[in-house]
Amino acid sequence: DAKTTQPPSMDCAEGRAANLPCNHSTISGNEYVYWYRQIHSQGPQYIIHGLKNNETNEMASLIITEDRKSSTLILPHATLRDTAVYYCIVRAPDNYGQNFVFGPGTRLSVLP
Amino acid sequence: SQTIHQWPATLVQPVGSPLSLECTVEGTSNPNLYWYRQAAGRGLQLLFYSVGIGQISSEVPQNLSASRPQDRQFILSSKKLLLSDSGFYLCAWSLQDYEQYFGPGTRLTVT
Asked: Per-residue confidence at A95, pLDDT binned at 50, 70, 90?
């Protein structure tokens, strides 16, 4: 079972920031928060991950609350190509990866 | 840079026929390898993972098997396909770092 809860769908206007929330109230101290997205009929694409500090890369920013029970993925200027299903995953690093569980995710629609 | 390949991209097979899907990774050594399946409109389900040549772990009992004959090659097989085996099959790799990187996938339709 996925350890995260995400809204099933969201809309965002093109050019505006898209803020995708994720609840992970049972996260353990050694578990990271990962975000992936999947554009229709393609393999999932890694976006970003973090442990407790906020992270930013060329694709997005990840804001993790101080208690680590929730996080928000921010796409600063959404484009039509950002329309995809976004997955939030919590996972502890190990050599096997068997606990990389993808739930249903949030379907983000970027509207013109 | 690392690249992951999967083939074929699409496949239509009759019930009862065998299956062989191949995944190869370039640009890295000793990766962890994974097979996932995604049914229509659903999240990803981990099927198999491998931490080395000949080492396969299965997450769910099913009609499928996996093999890793070489360090960067991962094969998903079935002796007799079922209708329920239809889906989008994804191969992924990771190092002892944390993120997994996915291939383009194979869309399998069993008729």
From this structure: very low
